[in-house]
Design a protein that fits this description.
alpha+beta; Cathepsin B, Chain A; Immunoglobulin-like; globular
Length: 597
């Protein structure tokens, strides 16, 4: 069973008193929503079918949400607390069957429940949610909820025939894995690549099965192949309705994907990391190297939602994953391929269309209710598209380094740096590189060398590593905390320059710090909006602090259960953040002023 908490915290902080919602009030909200959005005539009468296995007879405080079926087709999930947005999920077709839920959908609702219970424990309210509730309960809302954009990815699954060519466990076919299903659904969306030339190496993994730790070796895929997109079906592969050729076409794609994603197969579930899917799609399947795995914790709820909507607006489906923060070995991946006028998203769960109807949407646009931080272990792949040939080079595991074993910071002196590059694209790279002085957000400040490498006519061949390159750089005199030396690249012969962040691995350095003093990480304007949360973070280029003590306006800030420091809800005015930081046994006091409007 896949545990899963990649779930929208549809709760935001505010100053109003929250309150539980009764079944009667929830039914009225459901009735009004469908009355305003119904395609059928007449009033609707919601039928309560599920409260998430929470006992409704114990009163509204025991119920985190209410799910109603609508006669004639459709269902809606209403929050059990008026500090959350009223509509958590909804569909204008089919019915909700609590006894036949895919694991991932059931666990998605468990996430709603956890967050609503947390919000109740904080006794906080939400002005935006209150306005939504008032509008919905009054029946005044006349806005019709409609899809803004739908990409329509194919509704495949993990069973037969999708798993037919996957690695077997004790002679039996395991599920092919949600990450592989999601990745292949995106590849089918583009019907790319035409084929695969490079062999995919095998690997060995260890997995606990029936309380026994076992080791398995998955063989590599040596053959070159042309993928049979013509015979892959654009449907759920209904039993008995597809040919052997159609089954083999999709099974081959998924089998190759499962090996390149280094899937850990198991009899009841198979898992693969999103980063492995990304690397495999770029290296073996010809997808654009700009594809990026982003982490939810790096963005506000508004920023995260905007990123997802922008990808869909640009006709790029998104593969997302979520892990239980208390058990990072379990999780689920799925495809986001649409959104509606209420800010909810259409999700292709990879469950052969279950709960993925065209009018089925789930709230996924705000993730962090207070100190129960659900931002951890949640990621998404953006820029998922076939390679454009624009940028296919990354730093090798050599990284960027000082030349001639000189490791002092490059302040007030000239210096040399060197690096190696690898072109993992399918065509020669004419990318230009240059060394820059950059700020702590990787924005270029000044060029440190006039040398462009490899030059206007030289190229790095496909799947090839460059020679080690040395740059003679001028000294850096005017620098601030967090500034660094970085390599920038250009794909238009020097008109625009971008920071080269892609490396062979997470520990490979992409920059050289200039000034090694910790600082409190805030936005460029030192200004925030009232109601926003603020994560308290220290940035230090070389050594992590051994301890940090935080105060906000003189009040001590304590870590949450995940060890994170956070101001859940900023209020208007000027505020002082203070941190006492211990690095190498020495204490430093940092002070930062911010303004909240």
């Amino acid at each position: 069973r896949l545990l899963f908490t990649f779930i929208a915290a549809v709760l935001v902080c505010g100053s109003l008193q929250a309150g539980p919602v009764t079944a009667e009030t929830a039914a009225r909200a459901a009735r009004n929503w469908f009355s305003g959005n119904a395609t059928r005539g007449g009033a609707v009468e919601p039928q309560l079918v599920w409260t998430g296995n929470y006992d409704v007879t114990r009163g509204p405080l025991a119920v985190p949400f209410y799910v109603f079926n609508i006669p004639g087709g459709g269902w809606i999930a209403i929050s059990g607390d008026d500090s959350a947005r009223p509509v958590l999920a909804r569909s204008q077709e089919g019915s909700f069957s609590p006894n036949d839920l895919p694991d991932i959908v059931s666990e998605w609702f468990d996430g709603y429940a956890d967050q609503i219970y947390f919000l109740r424990s904080q006794s906080s309210g939400n002005e935006t949610a209150k306005a939504q509730w008032e509008s919905l309960l009054s029946g005044e809302s006349t806005t019709r909820a409609t899809a803004v954009k739908m990409l329509g990815t194919v509704l495949w699954g993990q069973g037969v025939p999708f798993r037919n060519m996957c690695f077997k466990i004790d002679g039996a076919l395991p599920p092919c894995g949600c990450t592989n299903t999601a990745g292949c659904e995106v590849m089918y969306y583009y019907k790319h690549p035409y084929g695969r030339d490079l062999p995919i190496p095998g690997y060995t993994y260890t997995k606990v099965i029936n309380e026994e730790s076992r080791t398995f070796t998955v063989p590599g895929v040596e053959d070159q192949v042309v993928y049979d997109w013509e015979h892959m079906r654009n449907d759920k592969y209904p039993s008995g309705q597809y040919t052997q050729q159609e089954a083999d076409a999709v099974a081959k794609l998924i089998a190759d994907c499962s090996v390149m994603s280094v899937t850990k197969f198991g009899p009841s579930g198979s898992g693969a990391a999103l980063s492995n899917l990304r690397n495999g799609m770029i290296k073996y399947m010809g997808y654009d190297p700009s594809m990026k795995r982003i982490n939810r914790v790096d963005y506000s709820a508004e920023e995260w939602g905007a990123i997802l909507r922008n990808e869909i607006d640009e006709n790029r489906p998104i593969v997302s994953e979520g892990y239980n923060p208390e058990n990072t070995s379990s999780g689920h991946a799925f495809v986001l391929d649409g959104y509606d006028t209420e800010g909810a998203f259409h999700i292709n769960w990879g469950w052969t269309g279950s709960y993925s109807g065209n009018t089925t949407f789930f709230a996924v646009d705000a993730f962090s209710p207070g100190s129960r931080n659900y931002n951890h272990n949640q990621h998404a792949l953006i820029y998922m598209m076939p390679a454009t040939g624009e940028m296919t080079v990354k730093l090798t595991d050599y990284g960027i380094a000082f030349s001639y074993d000189y490791y002092a910071p490059p302040e007030n002196r000239n210096f040399y740096v060197n690096a190696k590059f690898y072109n993992y694209g399918t065509r020669p790279s004419g990318t230009w590189f240059k060394v820059f002085h950059a700020d702590y957000r990787n924005n270029p400040i000044s060029e440190l060398t006039s040398t462009i490498w490899p030059g206007s006519t030289a190229h790095i061949a496909p799947n090839s590593e460059s020679e080690k390159t040395n740059w003679y750089c001028k000294s850096v005199y005017d620098y601030k905390v967090g500034d660094k030396v970085m390599i920038f690249y250009s794909i238009d012969q020097g008109t625009l320059w971008y920071p080269l962040l892609a490396t062979e691995g997470p520990k490979v350095p992409y920059c050289i710090p200039i000034y090694d003093i910790p600082f409190i990480d805030i936005n460029d304007e030192c200004t925030y909006e009232a109601g926003e949360p603020l994560n308290l973070l220290i940035t230090n280029n070389r050594k992590a602090p051994s301890s940090i003590e935080w105060t906000f306006d003189g009040e001590t800030v304590y870590p949450d259960k995940n060890g994170d420091y956070r101001i859940n809800c900023l209020t208007t005015g000027n505020h002082t953040i203070r941190a006492v930081v211990i690095i190498d046994g020495e204490g430093t006091t940092l002070v930062q002023e911010i303004t909240v409007k």
